[in-house]
Amino acid sequence: MEGCDFESFPAGGQLSVARSLIKFFGDSLALVGMSSRDEPVGQWFRKEIQGTSYWFFPVCRRNVSAKKPFIPARLTFYLGLQRYRRRILSLGCRYALTQAPEVLLPVSRWGLESLCYMFPGVENPLRISRYRLARKLCPLFDRLLFSALDRVSVILACADENAIGRFVASSKGRIARERIVQVPTCVDLAEFRPVSIQESRARLGIPCNSSVFVTSGRIGRFKGWELLLDAFAVFQRKFPDSLLIFVGDGEDRPLVEAAIAARELGSRVKITGFERPSEVSCYLNAADVVLFGSLAEGWSVAMLEALACGKPIVSTPVSGVNEMIIPRKNGFVVQTRDPAEYANAMESALTLRDVEGFSTAIADRFSLTRLGERLGRLWSPLDVGSVQADPMDMSVSDSLPESKAVPTIATAPEFAKQP
Q: Hey, what CATH topology would domain 13-186+368-404 get?
């Protein structure tokens, strides 16, 4: 259950993980989301996604746009879930998985047999909200979230140990550390893989003799676009033929465009807008270096996608970065937000050798297959009895506290006929 269309909107890490999970588990899943096209709202119907037909229930419709909607999208989705609760439950599903707090808050009270919540990052999402009023509601949101988590069977967190520790401390004893299972996020290695830089640039019309930097994801203030522009301006004075490409869109796009003009970088910086995963992969493969300047992140899906394409990365010190970047091997972690220091790291990243092997080996540890199998072990409704332990699995523990274990279920839930 996610506030997305499970295809391409709204772009971001949560959509990428949702797409990956439905690809791995297939039609054993039914999908509750939102529609971005002319589809029926408020009823179950069959929908084909990535070549597989699913039961799909959109609770609302949103136009594909980077503009901030008048009513927050999270609130719209929350209200849609409340409105269509009976119709959603009429399909007969007894278990639910979500990454979205706006889903968790109502659904935790629906009386399901088992609910799995996967934190896409343990930061309070209202702290980086596009709405000023929402940011003032952070304390209330925390209280509601901790209460909802009491009714969750399995809590997973795509975050590093430091971030999880801070979250547990903020709960003031409401959430025990033992209840949270640390899991990395995942990347679909069939979709993101190394392709010749020459081939990728030819497809996109990018000059082969330029230094090309790419950053991907939502264009919002918390993604640190100002740092990237300032650092690129420093770099570009020394290397005037260089290019910076923002792959994505977001509410801050007008601000970024104004900042590009103010720095007189109009001919050297491009914003692509929303792109499908295949195009994102192409842009990543066309890059010399991939950049991230975020103020806060969960375990970055976009960073894993860059690694899967064999690229070096320059990043700020966000959650999970120490698991994905080996300094001076496949990138650099810049501890400050000094544009000159960041620009120096960009230049150094261009000189790294044998990066592809380091980056793809790291990405392989976080493959979709590994995470899908791991979820089957951690949450029994996804365990169809065919998953075997992987001796090369990710290093974080698979154990769950006995008090929160859920009954073993041999098969995925069977769906009732369409209501």
A: Rossmann fold (3.40.50)
CB count in 10 Å sphere of residue 399: 11
Q: What is the pLDDT of residue 373?
A: 84
pLDDT value at position 124?
64
> In sequence order, what are the residues at sequence separation of 6 or more whose Cβ sits closer than 8 angstroms to the Cβ of residue 331?
289, 312, 313, 314, 315, 325, 349, 352, 355
> Of 3.40.190.10, 3.30.559.10, 3.40.50.970, 3.40.50.2000, which CATH number belongs to 197-365?
3.40.50.2000
**What Å distances lie between residue 268 and 201, 282, 304, CA to CA?**
15, 19, 26
Give me the numbers of helices (H) and strands (E) for the chain, helices first please: 16, 13
Q: DSSP state, 418?
A: P
What's the Cα-to-Cα distance from 298 to each of 134, 357, 393, rounded to whole Å? Answer: 20, 25, 21
Alpha carbons 158 and 45: distance in angstroms, whole number: 31
SS3 assignment, position 39: coil
- 162-186: pLDDT as tens digits: 888 989 998 989 999 999 998 877 8
How many alpha carbons fall within 13 Å on the CB side of residue 97?
Answer: 25
**Chain centroid to CA 210:** 30
Domain ranges of the chain: 13-186+368-404, 197-365
Q: In the structure encoding, which two tokens stand for residue 90, read together? A: 């009429």
The amino acid at residue 141 is: F
User: Residues near 340 by Cβ (< 8 Å), separated by ≥ 6?
Assistant: 231, 234
For residue 1, give the nearest of 56, 64, 49, 68 by alpha carbon.
56
Please check whether the two domains, 13-186+368-404 and 197-365, share a CATH topology: yes
